[in-house]
Amino acid sequence: MNIDAKTANEEYSLPCAEALLAGTLALMTGHVQACCDRQRGLMGLKITDNLSRLAAHPRLTPQFRTMLWNLRARWQLQLQQHGDVAPSEPDRRLWHRESSSVQ
């Protein structure tokens, strides 16, 4: 099997809600495996944001959206209890400075 055929088999085209759900599940897996508290905290924040977006998605059933809101509340509580909250100001030490001109 050549690399192009293998790559083509790994590409997916998912509807918006399913793609967001797949990404959220991947983040949940990463959250459990994270070796750094900062990474874990940032992933947790993204998970709660994704769960909020999913809970508001119009193509999901009301029952599923209710379950997502409850799951989001549990994640949010867990993040607060463990102090996994994002800093109010991101660390900008490694950010590039604004260019005075555009090339």
Blueprint (SSEs and pairs):
Elements: H1 3-10, H2 16-33, H3 37-55, H4 62-81
Helix pairs in contact: 2-3, 3-4
Summed up:
The protein has helices at residues 3-10, 16-33, 37-55, 62-81.
Can you describe this structure?
By secondary structure, this protein is mainly α. The protein has a domain at 37-86. The chain has 4 helices and no strands. The radius of gyration is 18 Å and the shape is globular.
Helix coverage percent: 55-70%
Largest sheet: none
String of helices and strands: HHHH
Mean pLDDT figure: 80
In total, the number of strands is: 0
First-last Cα distance:
43 Å
Q: Specify the structural class.
A: mainly alpha
Main features:
single chain; 103 residues; mainly alpha
